[in-house]
Each structure stands twice: as structure tokens, then as C-alpha cells.
Amino acid sequence: MVPSILTPYASFFQAVVRRPATTGARVPMERRDIANAFDGAPVYYVPVTDSTMNDARRLSEHGAINGTVVFAGSQNLGRGRFADRSWVSETGTGVLMTVILDRELSDLPAPIGAFPLLAGLALSRVLEQDFSFDVAVKWPNDVLVHGKKVSGILCEATRTSILCGVGVNCNQLGFPGDLRNATSIARELGRPVDPERVIARFLVELRVIVTGGRQYPWRREIERRLAGKDAEVEVTSGLDRTPVKGILRGVCADGSLELEIAGAKKSFPSAEILLRS
Q1: Domain holding 139: CATH number?
Q2: pLDDT digits 0-9 by tens, 170-217
Q3: Count of domains in the chain?
């Protein structure tokens, strides 16, 4: 789930901070005046791109500092957790971003494999505090509002960075039939919201979590919001994708899903989970 990819280049990032970044994207990036809790690290905007994850990887390869953000108005190749899935969003209606985190920082609160959960926790806190939503985290990388998906998260790693990709449905009101279980902040709130404000607030909460050290109670916070906790769920894992039923008990220290099956606990580092209505 966390590929390790890095191709070193010469010092390019100094040029990026002086003028719009060109990093291989079809149009230059523009630095936006969005408050970044990560010590004022730059936040770049690109109107259209293939993937903010790819843009962030290029910036990372050229020495982007911890907390640098790339967000887009639309992306053509936004991808999901599996190869046959993508992130679908109407142009300009949501948050499509990737945050670059330094994986070499000491005392990170969790292993890299748990970072989708940490990002989901950060967004959950924004949605709870700013909009008073009933929020749940669906393992391993979705955030639900009133039982419907409002956000998907994908994290990847290079040799030096954790790339935290986050999609949030902000102002989209209609969804295709195959996304009938999707929703948006505006749809649940009854009014539009400012995506850039959502980005700034997310960065505040993410920084609190990732700088909280190994004593930060992220598992307790996740399990308090974990969709399906203490209920029977069905998971599929492994090459044969054989379904297994069990009671969802929580998450392990490495971010794996923990089920109770026939009285014994078993962890699933990678699986597809089906929640029962």
C-alpha cells in the first residue's frame, strides 16, 4: 500500500519558491496565500493537473520542505486505493491536495502505513469542530459524514517523504449513480463552504497529530470514530479475496484492522471492508 519511489534531481526547489513551479505539470503552479500550520510552508495551486500526488512527488524530489502542499482545481488521473478506482470531483468544487511530510522527522506518532488513518482523524476533527457533523472513519482511508463518504485519502512514500493525498467533497451537490453513497460538506450543511479554509484547518489539525510524538493517542481517537466498531463486518484480503466475517474490534499499532473471529483476534494489514447496514 506504501510504495517507495524516489528519483534524485538537482536543486530545483529554490527556483520554485521564486517563481511559479513547472515540475512537469502542464501549467505552472501558483503559490497561494493560505495559512499553513507547518511553519508557513508553501501552498501551491494548479488549475488542472494529472495528479497532485505526482506533482508533490516532483517537489519532494527537488527538496520541498516539510508541510508543503499542492492542491488543484481538477485532476485527470486522481487515483484511489486500488488501481481500478479513481477520485471523481467536479472542477473547482472540492479539495484535491497532497501534503508533503518529512518521514525522517523523529518521534512520528505512528508507522507510515497508519498515515491514512492519521489524515482521516485530522479531517474528522475539522468536520466535527467547524460544522458539527457526525463523523466516522472507515478503515483504512475514508471519512464519512452521516454515514456517507465525504473524503478519500491515499498516502505513498518516497525515501525521504510521506505524500498524503486527500480528496474532500466540499461543494459538489450531485454525484453519479455509482457514487450514491457519496456526499459533500455543502450537501450536508445546506450552504457552500470555502475549500481553501478547509485546507488551512486540515493543516492545523494534521500538524497537531503528526507532531504529537509516540505518546499521541491516535488509536484511541480513531477507534472512537471507527465505522462498524464492535459490529460484524465482512472483509476480503489476499490474492484469492476470500470473504471473512468477524467483529471489528479496532486498529493495531501499525494501522492494521483488528477483527475478532471465532473468539480470536486477527489483524489485516490490507483488506477491503464491507460494513453491514
Answers
A1: 3.30.930.10
A2: 999 888 766 778 999 999 999 999 999 999 999 999 999 999 999 999
A3: 2
Q: Which residue has the cell 538537482?
A: 10
- What are 105-120's pLDDT values in tens digits? 878 899 999 999 999 9
**Residue 129 φ then ψ, to 5°:** -75, -40
Round to whole Å and give the CA distance between 82 and 272: 10
Contact 148, 182 (CB under 8 A): yes
Grid coordinates of 176: 453519479
Please name which of 274, 251, 43, 56 lies closest in space to residue 266, comparing C-alpha atoms: 251
Instruction: Find all residues with CB under 8 Å of 95, minimum gap 6, and list them.
Output: 71, 166, 167, 168, 170, 195, 198, 199, 202
pTM: 0.86
